[in-house]
């Protein structure tokens, strides 16, 4: 049974064309899924359906095979946590520690359990030095870490990240990649994220959905999607930098194997170099 499944999911905001059109989407346990698409493709709207923030115009969203209803909405939101693109939408308490405690406290957990979860989240996101700071005084990257910590303190089974690297400096992006990649194996968590920066996708995802004008127009593994330059061009997405470089070099006669992540590309270059000696 899939942890999340949407079937023919369609949604329209008032007086607008459909933002989602018959979207079929599946997420399994411990998977790492990227949802990519240009602005207005429907990524954020899809994410808001995954824990019941929006209700479909038609179609359905299933969580462990059960549709989202008023009666199970609380359990769904415990299971699926969303970190929005702008952390100011989620970070609002007087201190970082209080903000992280907000979610588990509202789950009705006892004080000791809340304290344990807050300490675990603070440790995971390296926030101890910030715990007594007002969140609105923090940098964008620090606020994002606080927002993620607040969701993790609720111990969800699925972490949904909407444009997680927006506003982060290069070190912040590297730290986020390293942290997110520990979640499936360390905690058995599914990670779903959207991004405009396709260079990140091979580092963070095993499977990719491509959206355009509210529809899923393609899905597959990272190699299956990124080998289709015409698909990315048609959906107004750039071919990742490493793939552009490798295709250019192969076109010039350099015998490079396929590679998508940084480690794969590095290995392909080293193999080609050794073969030329």
TrEMBL record:
CDD domains to which the protein is assigned, alphabetical: ABC_cobalt_CbiO_domain1
What this protein is called in its record is ABC transporter ATP-binding protein
Q: Which family does it belong to?
A: Belongs to the ABC transporter superfamily.
Q: Which PROSITE patterns match?
A: ABC_TRANSPORTER_1, ABC_TRANSPORTER_2
UniProt KW keywords: ATP-binding, Cell membrane, Membrane, Nucleotide-binding, Translocase, Transport
Q: Does the keyword Plastid apply?
A: no
Q: Name one GO molecular function term.
A: ATP binding
Its placement in the membrane is given as: Peripheral membrane protein
């Amino acid at each position: 049974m899939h942890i999340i499944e949407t079937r023919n999911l369609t949604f329209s905001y008032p007086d607008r064309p459909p933002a989602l059109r018959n979207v079929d989407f599946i997420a399994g346990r411990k998977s790492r899924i990227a949802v990519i698409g240009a602005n207005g493709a429907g990524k954020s709207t899809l994410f808001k359906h995954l824990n019941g923030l929006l209700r479909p115009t038609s179609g359905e969203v299933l969580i462990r095979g059960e549709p989202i209803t008023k009666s199970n909405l609380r359990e769904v939101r415990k299971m699926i946590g969303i970190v929005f693109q702008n952390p100011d939408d989620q970070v609002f308490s007087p201190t970082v520690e209080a903000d992280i405690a907000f979610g588990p406290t509202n789950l009705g957990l006892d004080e000791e359990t809340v304290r344990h979860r807050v300490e675990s989240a603070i440790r995971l996101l390296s926030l101890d030095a910030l715990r007594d700071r007002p969140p609105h005084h923090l940098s964008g990257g620090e606020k994002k870490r606080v927002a993620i910590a607040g969701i993790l303190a609720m111990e969800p089974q699925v972490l949904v990240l909407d444009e997680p690297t927006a506003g982060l400096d290069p070190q912040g992006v590297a730290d986020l990649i390293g942290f997110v990649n520990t979640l499936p194996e360390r905690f058995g968590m599914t990670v779903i994220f959207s991004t405009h920066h396709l260079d990140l996708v091979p580092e963070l995802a095993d499977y990719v959905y491509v959206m355009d004008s509210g529809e899923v127009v393609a899905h597959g593994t990272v190699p299956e999607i990124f080998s289709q330059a015409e698909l990315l061009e048609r959906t107004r997405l750039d071919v990742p930098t490493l793939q552009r470089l490798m295709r250019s070099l192969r076109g010039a006669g350099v015998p490079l194997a396929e590679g998508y992540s940084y480690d794969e590309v590095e290995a392909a270059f080293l193999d080609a170099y050794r073969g030329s000696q």
